[in-house]
Amino acid sequence: MSQKVNMDVFLYYLLITQKMNDFTVSEAKEKLFCEKGEFASLEEARKYIYRQLSRNIKTGMLKRTDHFDAGVKKVLYSTTEKFFLSKIVPIRRLKKSKKIISNEDRSLDQKSNSYQILLENELKLYEIDLNANIEEAKEYKRLTARFPELKARLQRHQLQARSESTEMIGKIRAIQKLLGHKVSGYEYVIEEIS
């Protein structure tokens, strides 16, 4: 008997209706943006699809595979056996309705609150990207130990992932300071992936 699994309606559209498999985030983003009028920008569509892909990787419905072509990394997402064995039900998560307020009625507190929500969401996305960069750098380190003959090539990729991690840490710390959060000590991360 197949297990019932809820899936976001847009990801359902891509995977079931459009039968996408072995695709990149960019391909999914462009298809959603062009064919569905729900997203204000390509960046909004990219962030949305990335969150959905990450969520479905954790549930085992999708898998992420890194492919290298002439030293260039291409990340592909594909369906798993669990995906094919499941009964997938499309669901639509309701967005919180936005209140329409005239500029005269808008107080500084309301503006501050809307910025805070946006910054909190941005912080979460940066933390997801940081975790992905950390795991990528760790994997290059492991691969270097397994395949010493590829050391020069792998180190180049590891340094790039490390550099991106450092950049993400800077962005995270800036937003944490702006929001008045305790600034996280990510210093261990750089040491761990060095």
Structure description:
With 194 residues, the protein is α+β, with helices and mostly antiparallel strands. It has two domains: 1-95, Winged helix-like DNA-binding domain superfamily/Winged helix DNA-binding domain (Arc Repressor Mutant, subunit A); 107-194. Helix content is 60%, strand content 14%. It has seven helices and four strands; from the N terminus they run βαααββαβααα. It has helices spanning 9-17, 25-35, 42-58, 81-85, 108-146, 151-179, 187-193, and strands at 3-8, 62-69, 72-79, 86-91. The strands form two sheets. A two-stranded parallel sheet has the order 1-4. The chain has a two-stranded antiparallel sheet with strand order 2-3. A hairpin with a 2-residue loop joins β2 and β3 (72-79). The longest helix is centred in the middle third of the chain and has 39 residues, at 108-146. The model is unreliable at 96-106 (pLDDT under 50).
Produce the secondary structure layout.
Blueprint: E1 3-8, H1 9-17, H2 25-35, H3 42-58, E2 62-69, E3 72-79, H4 81-85, E4 86-91, H5 108-146, H6 151-179, H7 187-193
Parallel strand pairs: 1-4
Antiparallel strand pairs: 2-3
Helix pairs in contact: 2-3, 5-6
